[in-house]
Amino acid sequence: MVTIIAAAAENNALGKDNDLVWHLPDDFKRFKALTTGHHIIMGRKTFESFPKPLPNRVHILVTRQEDYQKEGCITVNSIEEALALAKEDNQPFIIGGGEIYRLGMPYTDKIELTRVHGEFEADTFFPEIDPEQWELTGSEYHSKDERHNYDFTYLTYIKKPGTGK
After folding, report:
1. Which residues of 73-110 are buried (b: 16+ CB within 10 A; e: fewer)?
2. Residue 158 lies inside a defined structural domain of this protein
3. Quick check: bond before 97 cis, omega within 30?
4. Domain carrying residue 46
5. Listing from the earlier edge strand, what are the strands of the sheet with 110-116?
6. What is the number of domains present in the chain?
7. Is residue 1 part of a domain?
């Protein structure tokens, strides 16, 4: 089961200038809990936004740059190559950015989306979720508090049978 995991605003904003536009500590904890022990597939720019590789995960970077290499990471030139390398993992995660989400959507079975309640200026966006293809199966609302400047909701979508690859 291939899973996309993302945090996107109500206008589908993901980030600006290769950085997030909000700070949600509980969402970071959830991301870590869900992805630890799995393959994480991402674009080069997403990887370069990290201070270092994330522990206890296999990093697969998708880039058009033929000679791009990073220590501790596997580099490929297509989402299909990335998914083929992750096929032994029972739940590889596609973690961004916007273009990688768009390319990965047809191959995805599940979306774990943190919907940040607000609209933000951004240069990277999450693709629209087509309600004809995706069923919302879980929703957990969180109010803003002293550690979180925005309300947010964890949303789980499952691809409807017969609607994709």
Report:
1. bbbbeebeebbebbeebeebbbbbbbbbbebbbebbeb
2. no
3. yes
4. 7-88+96-152
5. 73-76, 58-62, 39-43, 93-96, 3-9, 110-116, 152-159, 134-142
6. 1
7. no
Sequential DSSP letters for 97-119: -HHHHHHHGGG-SEEEEEEESS-
Residue with structure tokens 């393959």? 39
What CA–CA distance (Å, rounded) separates 57 from 53? 8
Closest CA to 27 of 2, 3, 5: 5
Assigned domain for 115 exists:
yes
Question: What's the CA gap between 71 and 164, in Å, rounded?
Answer: 34
Assess if residue 164 is contained within a domain.
Answer: no
Length of the chain counted residue by residue: 165
Task: Please write the tens of the pLDDT for every residue from 10-30.
Answer: 999 999 998 889 999 999 999
CATH assignment of the domain containing 109: 3.40.430.10
**CB distance 44 to 62 below 8 Å:** yes
Name residue, tokens 């949600």. Answer: 24
Distance CA 33, CA 28 (A): 9
Structure token digits, residue 12: 């589908």
pLDDT score recorded for residue 165: 62
Q: 0.85 exceeded by the pTM? A: yes
